[in-house]
Design goal:
It contains 8 helices and no strands. By secondary structure, it is mainly alpha-helical. Helix 1 packs across helix 7.
């Protein structure tokens, strides 16, 4: 029997809250939820608003799902070879840049919708492996399940504000640019936070 004293989930989360890396992971993963639900709640309608047919938008969205699987698998392999903070900083930074490129540079047609979806998908679930890996490195195995679960709760809180706020901004502005710009700012902040994890890993 383990001699380690059992602690409540509340005490464990309070303990994790004093850990620098865990706080940065919470900041990044809640942003991840915000980003993902813009895609899942609004992207199909956004494509249609550009004059893309519903059928073509469905195909583009299907490509997003396939790319998400591929990106998650690739990230799992990379997480054992590259510093996890570096990976997270790249993923969040790429999201911010990719959204800006699509909104302000690329033409709005079926081809670019598919390309945009592939880029979004490749980083969609890619954050999970390095995030959970860092929790495993920072805490003992007895604490990991609870702390990863709390990260997913934060992820879903970010997701709620994305779906809710996206609808409000769409109604207020008549378009999707505003919610994406909020996402760009949050992703840039998450990239900066994750780069601080990278510095910690090198110490």
């Amino acid at each position: 029997m383990s001699s380690e004293k059992k602690i409540s989930a509340r005490s464990l989360i309070r303990e994790a809250g004093s850990d620098h890396v865990y706080r940065l992971l919470v900041a990044g993963f809640s942003t991840c939820g915000f980003h993902m639900v813009i895609i899942e709640s609004h992207l199909f309608s956004q494509f249609e608003s550009y004059g893309i047919s519903g059928t073509a938008a469905s195909w583009a969205f299907s490509v997003y799902g396939i790319a998400t699987i591929a990106g998650a698998l690739l990230s799992g392999m990379l997480s054992s070879r590259i510093r996890k903070g570096q990976l997270l900083a790249f993923y969040y930074g790429f999201r911010a840049v990719w959204v800006l490129v699509y909104l302000f540079v690329l033409p709005k047609n079926v081809f670019t919708a598919v390309i945009f979806s592939i880029g979004l998908g490749m980083t969609g679930d890619a954050t999970v492996s390095p995030t959970s890996g860092l929790v495993n490195e920072e805490f003992s195995i007895e604490k990991v399940a609870t702390l990863v679960g709390f990260l997913f709760l934060c992820h879903q809180i970010g997701a709620f504000f994305s779906a809710w706020g996206g609808g409000i901004l769409l109604k207020a502005t008549g378009g999707y640019q505003a919610i994406w710009m909020v996402d760009v700012i949050l992703c840039a902040a998450a990239a900066l936070a994750s780069s601080r994890i990278e510095k910690r890993e090198k110490q």
